[in-house]
Structure formats: C-alpha cells, structure tokens
Write a structure and sequence with these properties.
Elements (H helix, E strand, L loop, with lengths): L4 H16 L12 H5 L4 E9 L5 E10 L3 E8 L7 E8 L9 E7 L2 E7 L5 E7 L8 E5 L7
Antiparallel strand pairs: 1-2, 2-3, 3-6, 4-5, 4-7, 7-8
Amino acid sequence: MKFPRRTLAALLSIAAVLVAAPPAGAATNPYTPTEVCGAGYRVISSLPAKTDGGSKWGGVYLLYKSGGYNCVVTIKWSFIGVATDTFAGLYRDSEDSSRNVYDQGNYKYYAVVRGYAPQCISYAGWVGDHAGESGTNAVAVSGWGWCD
C-alpha cells in the first residue's frame, strides 16, 4: 500500500511516540538510596535484585558515611506501592550471625538498615512478588569486602 508523504510522515511520528512512551500504568519509585539513608551517606556499591529468570525487580545499594557507618537499602523497581516481602541486610560477621542486621517486611517502596561496621562486610537484599515468604523473589547478594 502506498501512502502520500504527509500521511507516511504522520504515521512514523505517531509510531515513534508510541515506542518511546513508557508502558501505561508504569510507576517509578519516588525514593532514592541517599534520601532513604539520610544526610552524609553516599552510594559505594549496588547490585540489581534479579529473579532466577533474570527479571530485575529492584536495586540493592550499599552506602557509607564517614566514621564506619553503612546503610543498605533495597529500592523496589517492581510492585511499587504494593506491600510485598522486601529485605535489606548488612552482614558484619561471617561467623557470628548475631552481629548482622537486617530489615524485612511487607513494604511498598523499600527496606533499609543502618549499622556501624568497622571491618569487612557483605550486603544483600530482595524484592518478593507477594506479601509474606511464599512466591518468587528477586535477590542480590554481594561478596565480602569494604575492609578498613
């Protein structure tokens, strides 16, 4: 089928707008890692929280504030505004789990934990697709590092 040039140009313009537009109903998380952790914290590492199938449902961020203070925040990229099982963990000792701190709950936007960590640490987070512990999780776990 042959279109006049004006019609073809108009159709191409409409197609470009439709391709560039975000999906209807797509939400963005209104919170940032530095906003959640507070003044003085800066992002020093991050990992995407991914499902076994590779879908990215959130970001897990490690932030640092001078004096040896860390903050771990899991920011939801999926299920924003819906209470789902969300986790942020700061691991301060690989052998004594009582020294580790975490925040887990049915959250709409993020989970966050802060703690003093003068030695090596690891961090982790997840975003679930349901409230509670049943269902699929998108997970991120770092190795040990950030040693003073």
